[in-house]
Write a structure and sequence with these properties.
Chain lengths: 867, 148
């Protein structure tokens, strides 16, 4: 037995190991497991380095690292240490192997399932991970039974609890990865998933193991109080997680903060003990320095997490946490892995003391430089510095990891040879080939970068008989409201491919006229656009509203064809029919937008979730138009309350571009609550309706002309305190309608010039002519009207009635008992109010915008009055 | 493309040369040298390794480099590659990177021979491994050129 229980748990590690056999079974098992770990690490590193090329790469890199490498390592080592600390007989190695294989196969399934967007596979993989961990926890529990139990037996409690944490974390992760959850509560599940896995599954075993490993690595006796402290820290961290994780899941911020604080106290207590140990003997080896630095990053990470959570809404926490990930993933977890493996690999892989020293020597190679480079990298990533500095930081950390991986791979290969031949051989023998391999890999990396790989694939221009000019790939940068190059000249017939990279912090896309378009690209993302053979001049532009106008366009010009421009003029260009067909019928299954306004709810706090989504809506008989909406309808839902009511509106951005929201009914600083949120983000907007009126709400993101013009508006009705009961209430939001591809040049030009294709009530041209509003004779009917614009107001009139009551912009202009009457409610863009009419007798009363251009172009409807 | 024409043969020779050179290095370092280390006495090993290295070096200089350069230039001319197009993203830039990497690998291989001759074994081994890994990169770039 080369890895007897006392070998690693012993406080004095330098003891020679008598009678170590060179090819013992545990050694071979460790060898295999660590080959797997090193492969996972290498894949994670490669993915992280090339992450801008794949959409799920960021996720993939993190999970290759945590689910692949770290989880495998924790499973191997917690079992190893549990045996040592419990003085238990080792469990059946076959079952251990089965668990490891099950874990790794399942991890591959999860990663593949998410990468190729195959939720079933991800779900099956999740179940596999959970099953493997249940087996692992069961094995740890079984080890405890009937074992002698060493002094440090309580540490095994960390491992068991960690296993339970991973079961919870994996289930939450599975819900996220398979999309089983939908959008509801996603933020809470994500936060709970991150915390239970990082602080539970990864954090607990590391902290627990350090009680034993830290003094061992330093080569000093354990502190006398280690065991009681370990017990208390386990209680604190365990309780903290038990409080924080469910609280995060339920979105309860302060209990989560409290739980995290308890966890932090536990970590702080353990760190204080570790610090006392260091005071007795300073770290000397690479392993001890890395473990020390890693523990510091853990403290920094937990404290920063606590601070963020205490000062931010949970819904705003996610982006902030991303800034912390480098600290926890690289500084803490990665560095702990490096430090622990540097110390432990020689222990478990060596065939004897000489061999062990040689392995340790090999793994220690250049540790000072690696330590400094790694931690400097983490620091650069952690500090709020401009993006290029962060990239340098990442490069430094990645280089340090790559160097360790090379050394670990060499140690594994060397140890394998040792296991086969029993030969020792100095570590120096491996340095030359290792250095050579490093130089070779560096050369390849430089060559790939120079070749523009792997940012995009290249064309086979040298293929059979095609000249190199047959296919042309051009790099296109989106940056600073410009597309560069702004002009590309190609020979006629050239097959053009655009390698589009967004170098801007804002999201952009690129659309080629009559051709393909890229998805919305975040910062650093790229997309290869196959434009195909070019026969005539083409334009390409960013479709985000306002960006083309600001200069984000490029010309693809055909050389040697003077009339190319004329040819390219698309006769059928933008799908924006001029004028609507008044004789058209609504399509089958069309339903009018209900204008009925229900009374305000009794509750004084109104919680509303509004999702910014794009939707195809029938905006006029037989005409479908892509709209940008709040909640899938244009206008968005009407909110109604009383003076003093609180509205808590959660805006969720399910669209591809940024959106925000502006409620005229409340007064708040435009900076924070009205800020634009990116795709996938949430924003809670809370306002108190201090004043009565019919108010507009709309998207607050520039260009507002386009965001409102494309449908992002709605009404908030705050009842005046003395509002009399009416027999019926309707709400009508009037607006202009612009057809065409949202954000396209043609549509935006019409908006700018105020040439809408129609004027509409509640988003549909003539919809209440097709589906009249109902009333009975002698009934008092109240019509709330809000003018959403974006540019025109309204002269609201109902043919055949006189308004005896007019309330406009917070004031009663006419009341029923006044002698005067009103014929029109006139509203400028964004104004609102109501009118009341009593219909004298049965009949069809037309409601119109009395600007007859608008009435004839959609702004008309019927009130059908029955006896 | 139908049938076998002159250009097929040129391309065949180009690929065959690369296969022989990269494959030769791999076979030497993965099969022959480890076996030599294990099975031969120190003295015999020294002589064998030296002789194998010299022969491989001779083949490289006398046959491989001229054939690769000649067929490579011909293929590039046939594909319409110009100096200008080498700088363009896509095919041109990949080809340029491949040429530079190939040149670097040849320099490394030459330096290996020199270091071996001077008895600087560690340096020679490092350079040999670097040349081998680098030549794999050349193959990778060549695959990227003809693929997609």
């Amino acid at each position: 037995m080369s890895t007897g229980p006392n070998e690693t748990a012993a406080p004095t590690p330098e003891r020679p190991r008598p009678g170590a056999s060179s090819a013992s079974a545990p050694r071979v098992r460790h060898l295999r497991a660590h080959v797997v770990i090193v492969v996972w690490l290498a894949l994670a590193l490669i993915t992280a380095t090339t992450q801008h090329t794949l959409p799920v790469a960021h996720w993939l890199a993190i999970h290759l690292f945590l689910l692949g490498a770290v989880t495998t390592a924790i499973m191997v080592w917690t079992e190893h240490f549990a045996v040592a600390m419990l003085h238990a007989p080792p469990p059946d190695p076959r079952w251990g192997g089965v668990r490891l294989i099950a874990l790794n196969v399942s991890a591959v399934a999860v990663l593949t399932g998410v990468a190729v967007d195959w939720p079933v596979l991800a779900g099956v993989g999740t179940l596999g991970v959970v099953a493997a961990i249940i087996g692992h926890v069961a094995a740890l529990v079984r080890l405890g039974r009937g074992a002698l139990g060493g002094r440090l037996a309580p540490v095994v409690g960390y491992y068991r609890l960690a296993g339970v944490a991973l079961i919870a974390g994996a289930v939450l992760g599975g819900l996220l990865a398979t999309g089983a959850l939908g959008e509801a509560g996603r933020t809470g599940v994500e936060l709970a998933h991150i915390h239970v896995n990082l602080l539970g599954w990864v954090g607990l075993p590391i902290v627990g193991t350090l009680f034993m490993l830290w003094p061992t690595v330093l080569g000093v006796r354990m502190e006398d109080r280690t065991v009681p402290v370990a017990r208390r820290v386990l209680w604190l961290t365990g309780l903290g997680l038990l409080l924080a994780v469910p609280a995060l899941l339920l979105g309860a911020r302060w209990p989560a903060v409290a739980g995290l604080a308890v966890y932090a106290v536990g970590v702080g207590w353990a760190s204080a003990l570790f610090l006392r140990t260091v005071l007795r003997r300073a770290p000397r080896s690479g392993a001890s320095w890395m473990l020390a630095a890693a523990t510091c990053w853990l403290v920094v990470g937990v404290v920063a997490d606590l601070g963020l959570m205490a000062t931010r809404e949970l819904s705003h926490l996610d982006p902030a946490l991303h800034g912390l990930l480098p600290v926890l993933l690289i500084g803490f977890v990665g560095q702990t892995l490096l430090g622990a493996l540097t110390y432990l690999l020689p222990v478990v892989l060596s065939g004897g003391p000489t061999d062990r020293a040689a392995l340790a020597d090999l793994l220690d190679w250049g540790w000072r430089t690696r330590l400094v480079v790694l931690n400097a990298g983490v620091l650069l990533l952690f500090l709020p510095l401009p993006a290029p500095v962060g990239a340098v930081g990442f490069g430094a950390a990645a280089a340090a990891f790559a160097a360790f991986l090379g050394l670990a791979a060499a140690a594994l290969v060397r140890s394998r040879e040792g296991a086969v031949t029993g030969g020792a051989g100095g570590a120096a023998a491996w340095r030359a080939p290792l250095a050579g391999a490093g130089i070779g890999v560096l050369l390849i990396v430089f060559a790939l970068v120079a070749a523009g790989l792997p940012a995009g694939t290249t064309s086979g221009g040298g293929g059979s008989g095609t000249a190199a000019t047959g296919t042309r790939t051009v790099e296109v940068e989106l940056k600073g409201m410009a597309v560069s190059p702004s002009r590309i000249e190609v020979a006629p017939g050239t097959v053009l491919r655009l390698e589009v990279v967004n170098r801007d912090t804002q999201r952009h896309d690129l659309r080629v006229e009559d051709g393909p378009r890229t998805p919305m690209l975040g910062e650093g993302e790229s997309h290869l656009l196959e434009v195909g053979p070019i026969a005539a001049d083409l334009e390409a532009w960013c479709t985000v509203p306002g960006h083309r106008a600001a200069g984000m366009s490029m010309t693809i010009a055909v050389t040697g064809s003077a009339d190319g421009g004329a040819e390219s003029e698309p006769g059928h260009g933008h799908a924006s029919p001029d004028g609507l067909d008044p004789a058209a019928e609504h399509s089958d299954g069309w339903e009018p937008r209900s204008a009925v306004l229900p009374p305000a709810e009794e509750a004084r706090v109104h919680e509303v979730e509004l999702r910014a989504v794009e939707a195809d809506i029938e905006v006029a008989p037989g005409v479908s138009q892509r709209m940008w909406t709040f909640g899938g309808t244009a206008p968005g839902p009407t909110l109604r309350g009383k003076v003093g009511d609180v509205f808590e509106v959660t805006l969720v951005n399910d669209a591809e571009m940024g959106h925000g929201i502006d409620f005229h009914a409340g007064a708040l600083a435009p900076d924070e609550p009205m800020r634009t949120i990116g795709p996938g983000e949430r924003l809670v907007y809370r306002f108190t309706a201090e004043r009565a009126g019919a108010w507009l709400y709309h998207c607050s993101t520039p260009s507002m002309l386009q965001h409102i013009g494309n449908g992002m508006y709605g009404a908030v009705i705050i009842d005046p305190p003395d509002l009399e009961q009416a027999d019926r209430e309707y709400v009508l939001v009037s607006s202009q309608l612009y057809l065409g591809e949202p954000g396209s040049e043609g549509q935006v030009a019409k908006m700018r010039e105020g040439r809408p294709d129609a004027w509409v009530f509640n988003g549909g041209a003539g919809q209440y002519a097709a589906a009249p509003l109902a009333a009975r004779a002698e009934e008092r009917v109240r019509f709330w009207v809000v003018a959403a614009g974006p540019s025109d107001g309204i002269a609201f009139h109902i043919v055949g009635t006189v308004f005896d009551s007019v309330y406009k912009e917070g004031a009663h202009l006419v009341r029923p008992d006044d002698p005067g009457g009103a014929q029109v409610l006139d509203l400028a863009a964004a104004q609102g109010g109501y009118v009341e009419a009593v219909f004298p007798e049965p009949g069809h009363y037309a409601l119109v915008d009395h600007d007859m251009r608008r009435a004839e172009a959609g702004a008309h409807g019927i009130v059908k009055v029955t006896p | 493309m139908t049938g076998v024409d002159l250009w097929t043969i040129v391309r065949f020779v180009h690929i065959l040369g690369a296969a022989l050179w990269v494959g030769g290095q791999l076979a030497l370092s993965l099969v022959i040298l480890p076996l030599a280390r294990r099975m031969l006495s120190a003295e015999a090993r020294e002589g064998f390794v030296g002789a194998a290295g010299r022969r491989f070096g001779l083949l490289t200089v006398a046959l491989f480099v001229p054939v690769q350069v000649a067929t490579g230039v011909a293929l590039a001319w046939r594909a319409g590659v110009t100096w200008e197009s080498l700088a363009a993203p896509g095919y041109g830039r990949v080809l340029a990177a491949k040429l530079v990497l190939f040149a670097a690998v040849m320099l490394l291989a030459a330096a290996h021979g020199w270091a071996h001759g001077r008895g600087r074994r560690d340096l020679a081994r490092a350079l040999a491994v670097a040349a081998l890994v680098g030549s794999l990169g050349v193959v990778l770039l060549a695959t990227a050129l003809s693929g997609a």
